[in-house]
Bardet-Biedl syndrome 10
Amino acid sequence: KLIYPLHFRLKHVLQAVCGLEAVVLRSFGPEGGQVLFTRDTGQAMLSRSGTRILTALRLEHPLARMVVECVWKHSTVTGDGSKTFILLLASLLRMIHTMACKEPNVSHTYNSREAAKAATARCLADELLAFALEEMDDLIAIGVVPYGFCDLWEDFTAETQSPAHTNNHGVQKLLASFFHTRLGQIHCDYISNLACQLLRHLKFKKDQPFLALQFVNDNFPALHTPVSGFPISCSRLIEGQVIHRDFAMPCARTDQQPVKAVVFTGYLQPQLFSAGDVLEVGCGNHMIAENSRKEKSIVEFSAWSERSLECVIANLQSLGVSVLLSAVKQSAAVMALAAQAEMCVVECISEDELSLFAQLSGTTPVSDCWIIETVNVATLTFCRPILLGVHRYVHVAFHDLEERVMVRPSSLVVCGPGEGQTDQYACAFQDAIRMLLTTCKPVGMTEATISKGTLQSQRSISLHTDDRSNKIVYNSFQQRVLVPSCVIPAGGTFEFLLNHIQSRVMSFIPNNSHAFNLLYKQEHNISLIQDHADMSSKIFMSDLGLESVSCKYELLLAVLQCVTSLLRVDTVLCTHTLLSGYIHLHIHTHRHTHTQYIYLYHIYI
């Protein structure tokens, strides 16, 4: 059978999510355990990462796979909250299921009880998502942010800091809380301090933490080196950059200062044939003359390419270049001439590493070997081999030039007992950077929210007659919404404060109408918030750890969007062959072994 449908009801969605909830529940929180996976090859894997646990499952249920995809997309952006995502999703679906069952089961609009439940559940999910998109950022700004700590990056990049101040810094405490849940309590302080050192070394001269975080996130594959067979406490920072290739042509001049290097993206020697070209060889009297002409042209081209290569090497010598970094494997002639010129050659370097080298050195890679200028030449402090574990790599360090925006470029060496654990430690590092990136983004910092906030402030001003009150209300909105890097104590503080402010708002709204602007009429609310604002420093110094307000906000939105998508699925069409282009109405497709799933959504007006 080519295509067969699977019809899903509300209880089927809940059952699929509850199955995932049971998997991650025991590994949830700082005291949660690890999950042991075994592969068909006998290889075992221990992990506490929610994303890694969920993506390692062999899921047959199409809705469960759809949920895992939503979790993966969320964690890719924020780096955190995958297990909380599942737990919150399951709890929300249970609540919607209970409320849908209390509604009238059959009406004139629907011909069955299950159809009425499904419609009620979809309506509830849509209303929750609409409320979150329109009002939740304001609730967080009024009821959560005043209890938080918003000067997260103050004095973070100071050159001289005492160890006590470093350990109590907001960024370090936020990272320690993150690594505590991801890697356990034993190594969380060491790894968080190492991450803080990396960010301080990679700081920009304009002292903007967001730029440094974005730089680390974009270049993390080239910025870190995994080393297996050592404890995680051996992880460290190395000055400069580690290029994950060995010398193809080493020489003894690399320790002399300064060392000049050039990056090539192509071949130094002109190529007669490119990939895919065909050399036609014939026989017979009528082909002798043609073959003789081709042989002569090939010999002439080879001689010309050798002379061209000699000119390129001579040009490099005149510029004082002693290191050649290449994205491709060079010819034997290049290696021979480089050896005669006492030049080092490093071949087959990845695009990510060459891009990082260009950024750190402030140079431009060479695309045309006939045009090599001083802007293509990088000045290095040294270029030498380095042994990390059982692998030998190329280690370079950069001169402190004015053109470079980085202060102290450094690379991260991540150690672990085994290959799988080392990879998990590295992923935890990158997820921590993504979490900090999300933390730096202000809650509700979008054009729509800003325009909505301006409109609300104007409306609230029209309700007051005192100019001073108007100014307080408007400034309060600006300070609460347009604030980045806000963190609060972990352990349920965000959930408690959000529930508290939501209950207070509902008490001011008659008949549960969505007139959120009435909150701004209560001047005592503003004064109450300002009275409690000075408590943030005391709460910040607590031992509960810290968590990001922006990450919590993004988590709630992602869960509500996932609920809406799940409840809109009516039928799943399963096919054992890939469908051609005649079906254009599917929204999501998943491939598992030889089965493709097509989700048909319920669409209504």
Summary: The chain has a mean pLDDT of 76.
